[in-house]
């Protein structure tokens, strides 16, 4: 259930592809919550109310058997087909959000510029291929292990998001925010506490193998950051230094990208939480150097 009901935050990675997301997203999320709750609650109430099956029989695939016992073979096949389409939709949504997250990081100069390349339809081709390739490496694990692994990494990511949210509220209270939690900083912290405790509980329930695999992935991620900084400093790969201000020229009208960011307006997505590091400060100072100062250095 935790895996089926998470990743709501990934919708933000597609905000750049949506016109006026500050008004569109709340309506879409509200409708999605209603649909998701009904799709789980109504069938479960029908299944548990019509049958006296013990909880031990409710294993993977048993819901289709419940449909057959209630409505016949056609309902069993309908549930199985709906489950397959649902998993396909989950895969497409996850791959799309990961791809646009890579694209956004590339446009902000955090990843090589190749990840920001788009096809003539406006889709981030390289980022999609990279996201799909990552799924292949999970094929050696069982489904239960994949769920534990994804839930563990998701919990860590959400804890980092909560920490970043609170830190930006404290250090950057005057930033332009398309979305703002209607509470003071203390209230925002209290809102983050219950889900943070639930995330810690999910991590504590993981198996030893999940801890080991997740630990390796986290270590690789920590090593990638200085490696990318080193590659950027030595010109090993091309990096975009600024956010694009217009949509790609190759995009058709039906797939045009609406830019929600302006260079003169700074928001949370363009603020680095690592701005206190010496390497980042040096890069910021060099980017703001006057032409005459650069001439003197030469």
From TrEMBL:
Domain of life: Eukaryota
Keywords: Cell membrane, Membrane, Transmembrane, Transmembrane helix, Transport
Primary site of residence: membrane
Amino acid permease/ SLC12A domain segment(s): 13-208
Positions of region (Disordered): 278-298
Pfam families the record matches: AA_permease
Coiled-coil spans in chain: none
One MF term in the entry's GO annotations: transmembrane transporter activity
Entry's Gene Ontology cellular component terms: plasma membrane
Subcellular location(s) per record: Cell membrane
Topological relation to the membrane, as annotated: Multi-pass membrane protein
Transmembrane segments annotated in the record for this chain: 28-50, 124-143, 149-166, 187-205, 211-229
PANTHER family, sorted: OS12G0580400 PROTEIN, POLYAMINE TRANSPORTER PUT1
Protein name stated in the entry: Putative amino acid/polyamine transporter I
Source taxonomy: Eukaryota, Viridiplantae, Streptophyta, Embryophyta, Tracheophyta
